[in-house]
Amino acid sequence: MINPQPITLATDRVCLEPLSLDPHDGLVDAATDGKLWELWQTSVPRPEETRAYIKTALVGQRDGHMLRMAVRDLESDRIVGSTRYHDIVAEIDRVEIGYTFYAASVQRSHINTTCKRLLMEHAFERLGCAVVGLRTDSFNLTSQRAIAGLGAQRDGVIRHHAPRSDGSTRSTVMFSILVAEWPDVRRHLDLRLARRRPPEI
After folding, report:
1. Which residues, at least 6 apart from 81, have a Cβ–Cβ distance to it below 8 Å?
2. By the 8 A CB rule, do 17 and 67 touch?
3. Which of the two residues, 122 and 39, has the higher pLDDT score?
4. Averaged confidence pLDDT in the chain
5. Res. 200 pLDDT band, cuts 50 70 90
6. CB-based burial of residue 150 (10 Å sphere; 0-12 exposed, 13-18 middle, 19+ buried)?
7. How many CB atoms within 10 Å of residue 34?
8. Pick the residue with more confidence: 198 or 78?
9. What phi and psi values does residue 163 have, to the nearest 5 degrees?
10. From CA 111, how far away is CA 83, in angstroms rounded?
């Protein structure tokens, strides 16, 4: 039975570090880069909500159903976003990856692929997960394309599923990757990252 615990995961370019109140200002800066809270189909805290957002994540971590991480770009040594394991179902060895946001300046870069590669590797190869799920708003077409681009399979849509930050109700598109699919997904992600690595001088 899986038991995710706070851990630091890193490559030479990106570090996922346990979330605490220490990177509060870094998360505020990341969300402010693009005013991400204005995107109605995502859930990103406003600057004044960030401390409460972190505290809620830490309560979820204490209760065993989520594990939140800050995303640090090692090339600039700044916090550029946040992500988490969530909806952890230890009895069936399942986690989901989500509640992810990145500063606008690093979107469509290597950051997201690297984070997902680190989180999936840890889930499948260290925690012993049988499946990793991902979900997004049915109107977040960019996120749906990004998730499918990782190699995840679309499971379906849960209609009228969850509240949005603006008070409306979203339908949720569910994706997943099974442990048997992980070797091919890993090769796919490694190739994507290799193509995005700048040439050595």
Report:
1. 27, 30, 70, 71, 100, 101, 102, 103, 106, 111
2. no
3. 122
4. 92
5. low
6. buried
7. 17
8. 78
9. -75, 145
10. 11
pTM of the shown model: 0.92
Between 198 and 43, where is the model more confident? 43
The β-bridge partners of 158 are 172
Q: Which residues share a beta bridge with 184?
A: none
Q: Residue 43's closest CA among 1, 100, 97, 96? A: 100
CA distance 111 to 193: 9
108 burial (CB, 10 Å; 0-12 / 13-18 / 19+) is exposed
> pLDDT tens across 110-137, in order?
999 999 999 999 999 999 999 999 999 9
pLDDT digits (tens, 9 = 90+) for 140-159: 999 999 999 999 999 999 99
Q: In what order do the strands lie in the sheet with 14-18?
A: 9-10, 14-18, 66-73, 78-89, 94-102, 131-137, 169-178, 153-163
Token pair of 84 as six digits? 């988490």
Would you say residue 184 has pLDDT above 70? yes
For the chain, domains (ranges, CATH) are: 9-196 (3.40.630.30)
DSSP assignment of 29-90 equals: HHHHTTTGGG-TTS----GGGHHHHHHHHHHHHHHTSEEEEEEEETTTTEEEEEEEEEEEEG
Q: Tally Cβ neighbours within 10 Å of residue 191.
A: 10
